[in-house]
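We modelled each protein-ligand pair independently. The example shown here corresponds to the adenosine-5'-triphosphate entry; the chain sequence is given first, followed by the ligand as SMILES.
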Amino acid sequence: MTMDTHAPLSRPDARADAPARPELLVLSGLSHSYGGVRALHDIDLTIGDNEFFALLGPSGCGKTTLLRSIAGFETPESGTIALDGVDLVSTPAHKRPVNMMFQSYALFPHLSVERNVAYGLEAEGLGKAEVKRRVGEAIETVGLGAFARRRPSQLSGGQRQRVALARAIVKRPRLLLLDEPLSALDRKVRADMQLELKRLQHEVGMTFVVVTHDQEEAMSMADRVAVLDAGRVEQLDTPVGLYSNPRTRFVAEFIGSSSLFDGTATAGGVDVAGLAELPAAHTLPVGSAVTLVVRPEDIEVVAPGGAGLLEGVVIDTYFLGGSSTVSVAVPGREKPVGCTVHATSTARRGDTVGLRIDHARSVVVADTRPVSHGGTESA
Ligand SMILES: Nc1ncnc2c1ncn2[C@@H]1O[C@H](COP(=O)(O)OP(=O)(O)OP(=O)(O)O)[C@@H](O)[C@H]1O
């Protein structure tokens, strides 16, 4: 049997709930409701200067409400928002040093690219020469120099998105808010634009706060990510921290793939219902309901029969290029266990294999749901 030899991810030891840079935006105790619907519950967040920050969560978790509160399109029920130490809640939206890029891009269809980009500056009453220079710079920054005279209908989706970006950065806000900025683009263009957005943020030196429900997008672009669920911040961390050290079951399921083993905490690990006691380090009360979270690259597929191994039967292998995913049915578990192996793995469908979990890398989280039998697996 082949052994999986992935290098371990480093675990962050710095406090990830505080930005590495000087703070720019501080939200304290922010709550908001729409009629009887609680959209935000007591949110505390600090976002750093020149940081690429993502708000990530499933539909309805409150991401847009949070963004709109920062922009000034919603007035929070309680709590404070300060930018550079100055209160924003009492500052009207148009006076905040904040710009928002909408999902729809909201371009003027009858105006050329350069007129679209110039619009906001002209509305501010800037001189013609200044407008021309700044518009030219912004259009170059987003790589649309050759398209300045075209109208939005003569551009691709990715190019339209760049116009919206140019229009957002041309006013040089301290903070740029982007609501699902890539959702209108197809998969390939999206991947390119993720890199582009990151480059642009670095180049213009502004703080970006991006809202997305796509965890890959958030993880690939952002310096830090706040994972929201039902109006609360579940975890605020770096992408590596979220992946390697999820603090709740929700985060473990939402970020990346994992096999989740529900059970009861023991002194040295987790007693997985109907399966085995699996060793793991944790500080949760013995006897409490917990979930052991194991990433696919932290499971080694080996010959069966060794001590401390789970055993199962390979039900599928998926070749992914440099690696493969082996899906193993383990008796007593409803969902198969996914393992990442080297592409040269000899594991084949129908093989009985042993699974060695890297106990030093698995994570135990408190499970607030009733203990289920058979375990679950995230996508
Ligand atoms: N204008 C409104 N009136 C009433 N309820 C609203 C309003 N806007 C949002 N909500 C509710 O507030 C909650 C948070 O909505 P919000 O739009 O902030 O979530 P979201 O995470 O951005 O979702 P999505 O990803 O689907 O856009 C949801 O339950 C939503 O139904």
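The radius of gyration is 24 Å.
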